[in-house]
């Protein structure tokens, strides 16, 4: 399994994913306690499974793969839109890059900081504390799970749709010997209510919080996910004295002729998820949530994100992605929100 000392030798560090595991040790190992021998994974590290070093870099499951690791020079695998403006109300001291300076590739620090700040903001909205048990949906390469486990002291069960991303995320967890606190699986977020019990590390493990960071606009449908999150949080063994919470960082795109037409061509963006902020709140209410709070963070997301991507010196597709986000923001009137809600006591 991943041995950072061995990976630092020879040309293995040419592989962005190998660099990622080395970076993980610098970022998180001090929080994980002794990790003498990494835990075995089913098939070994993903870059060793590939005969072509570049192959896993291009591996994709639909929309998402591994190549976005380039965006932070292999320092992290974050792929959320980022919160690019500091928030005085959010405790960022748990963000690794803001207080420990361990992010390699100085020019990528703004991206990593913005992504970490987004995780801190969603965790804050969810009321995450030390010991909180989290169901994390759409975790990508698992960066947010590592942050929640090591810096916030959470137990995490994660479900994400991309098998190749899940495989890399599990490698990262194993390399940090975190498998007792972080259990990551592949699966669809809309099945979180039926999926989590089989992943629970102990029979008394029940979720306090469901999170979805920059992912729910993909779900088929987001309303189904709200219902599944509610069911997970109200499972028989959950404590009625401590109503469960749901928190999301999410994209809201109004339903217009242009957006309905565009989304009907893109399977990863279901037309059913189009709608206003009021529609979003209505869906949460119908699913059984109350105390719904919506923070419109559009101006803290899109200017920073589009500026970073449009000026990115690497692969051209990232600059194209920057212009795509700019079009969502300016031409399609998309908003970006951080949303939190509590399970209704009366339900
Ligand atoms: C923009 S990426 C964000 C990844 C991660 N949250 C982060 O911030 O780095 C969206 C993620 O949602 C996942 N995803 C898309 N549809 C999903 C679904 N139906 N269920 C679970 N995960 C899904 C993708 O695989 C991808 O990892």
TrEMBL record:
InterPro entries: Erg6_SMT_methyltransf, SAM-dependent_MTases_sf. Residues 32-54 are annotated as: Disordered. This is Methyltransferase domain-containing protein.
């Amino acid at each position: 399994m991943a041995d950072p000392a061995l990976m630092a030798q020879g040309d293995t560090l040419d592989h962005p994913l190998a660099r990622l595991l080395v970076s993980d040790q610098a970022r998180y190992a001090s929080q994980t306690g002794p990790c003498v021998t990494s835990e075995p994974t089913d098939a070994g590290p993903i870059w060793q499974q590939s005969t072509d070093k570049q192959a896993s870099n291009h591996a994709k499951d639909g929309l998402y793969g591994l190549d976005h690791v380039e965006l932070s020079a292999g320092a992290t695998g974050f792929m959320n839109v980022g919160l690019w403006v500091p928030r005085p109300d959010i405790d960022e001291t748990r963000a690794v890059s803001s207080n420990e300076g361990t992010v390699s590739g100085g020019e990528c620090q703004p991206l990593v900081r913005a992504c970490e700040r987004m995780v801190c903001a969603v965790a804050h909205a969810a009321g995450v504390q030390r010991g909180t048990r989290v169901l994390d949906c759409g975790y990508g390469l698992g960066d947010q799970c590592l942050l929640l486990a090591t810096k916030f002291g959470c137990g995490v069960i994660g479900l994400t749709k991309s098998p190749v991303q899940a495989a890399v995320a599990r490698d990262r967890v194993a390399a940090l010997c975190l498998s007792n606190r972080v259990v990551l699986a592949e699966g669809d977020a809309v099945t979180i209510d039926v999926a989590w019990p089989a992943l629970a590390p102990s029979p008394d493990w029940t979720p306090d919080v469901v999170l979805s960071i920059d992912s729910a606009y993909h779900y088929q449908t987001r309303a189904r996910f709200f219902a599944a999150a509610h069911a997970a949080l109200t499972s028989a063994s959950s404590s009625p004295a401590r109503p469960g919470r749901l928190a999301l960082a999410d994209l809201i795109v109004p339903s217009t002729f242009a957006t309905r037409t565009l989304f009907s061509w893109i399977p990863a963006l279901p037309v059913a998820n189009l709608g206003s902020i009021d529609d979003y709140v209505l869906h949460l209410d119908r699913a059984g949530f109350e105390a719904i709070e919506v923070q419109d963070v559009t101006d803290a997301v899109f200017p920073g994100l589009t500026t970073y991507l449009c000026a990115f010196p690497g692969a051209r597709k990232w600059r194209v992605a920057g212009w795509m986000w700019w079009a969502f923001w300016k031409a399609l009137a998309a908003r970006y929100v951080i949303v939190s809600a509590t399970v209704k006591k009366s339900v």
